[in-house]
Design a protein that fits this description.
Radius of gyration: 21 Å
Number of strands: 0
Largest sheet: none
Shape: elongated
Number of helices: 9
Structural class: mainly alpha
Order of helices and strands: HHHHHHHHH
Helix content: over 70%
Number of domains: 1
Distance between the termini: 40 Å
């Protein structure tokens, strides 16, 4: 048992170190891609971000509606229904917006990135690029990584705005909370630090989700089963990493 634990720990350290080196390679090629091949990044922002808008907006609307219902139900016991807006805004901006968006992003865009790169490896497209003196790192991996990093904060902002609209729709329109009190309580409760925390979280989650998706796809076993396993690992590892990082960032910001 101890031998298995030892080998598992050593393999984890080896994989973690290789992931860090892979991340540094992505960063080293990023300035060239941004300056010279920014069109590739824009295309990947469309694939990872624009094509995820529907699921982000639908989920944001209903998450905001649930916050409005739960907030009204609990705050009405203390005659504080007007604070529904503040509760919904703080919950969406600091926690639910970045976290749920990152989980949805990994489930929709992350799996697409991992499976796409894994399939390119399985069909020898990456090897063909190398034979033609085209760097797969610059042509395939870096644009997809940057597209995910740029898309994630924007999607989190859309999720938060739509969630606030859902909370307003439920709290003000359906439950009769005063609209002026709803927005006034929200403005008094939300501080610039709360917004900065949400931006930092969404950016960090975007880096992690995009990095893991590209890494798993690039290192997938070039078979149908290997690509499927890489896609599954992308969702599982990204979800665990996001929740751990969310706890760490929240603990630091308090």
């Amino acid at each position: 048992m101890f031998r298995e634990l030892y080998y598992t720990f050593v393999e984890f350290l080896r994989t973690f170190g290789a992931l860090q080196l892979f991340f540094l390679r992505l960063l080293s090629h990023s300035p060239y891609i941004i300056v010279r091949r920014f069109g590739l990044v824009v295309h990947q922002v469309h694939n990872a971000g624009a094509l995820s808008l529907v699921i982000i907006m639908v989920c944001g609307l209903f998450v905001g509606g649930v916050l409005g219902l739960q907030g009204y139900s609990n705050l009405s016991k203390f005659n504080a229904e007007d604070a529904v807006g503040a509760v919904a805004a703080l919950g969406l901006i600091k926690e639910l917006g970045p976290v749920i968006t990152a989980l949805l992003f990994s489930g929709r865009a992350g799996t697409a990135l991992a499976s796409e790169i894994g399939l390119m490896k399985a069909t020898d497209q990456l090897s063909a690029m190398e034979m033609m003196a085209i760097s797969p790192m610059q042509r395939v991996l870096v644009p997809r990584f940057l597209g995910g990093v740029i898309s994630m904060p924007l999607l989190a902002a859309v999720f938060t705005v739509v969630g606030l609209f859902g909370a307003h729709l439920v709290g003000v329109t359906l439950l009769g909370v005063d609209a002026g009190a709803f927005w006034a309580q929200m403005q008094n409760a939300v501080e610039p630090g709360d917004v900065y925390e949400g931006i930092i979280k969404s950016t960090v989650f975007g880096v992690v989700a995009s990095l893991l998706a590209v890494w798993e796809g690039y290192n997938a076993i070039p078979t149908a089963e290997g690509v499927g396993r890489a896609t599954t690992r992308t969702v599982v590892i990204t979800a665990i990493s996001i929740l751990i990082l969310d706890f760490m960032i929240t603990a630091i910001s308090i």
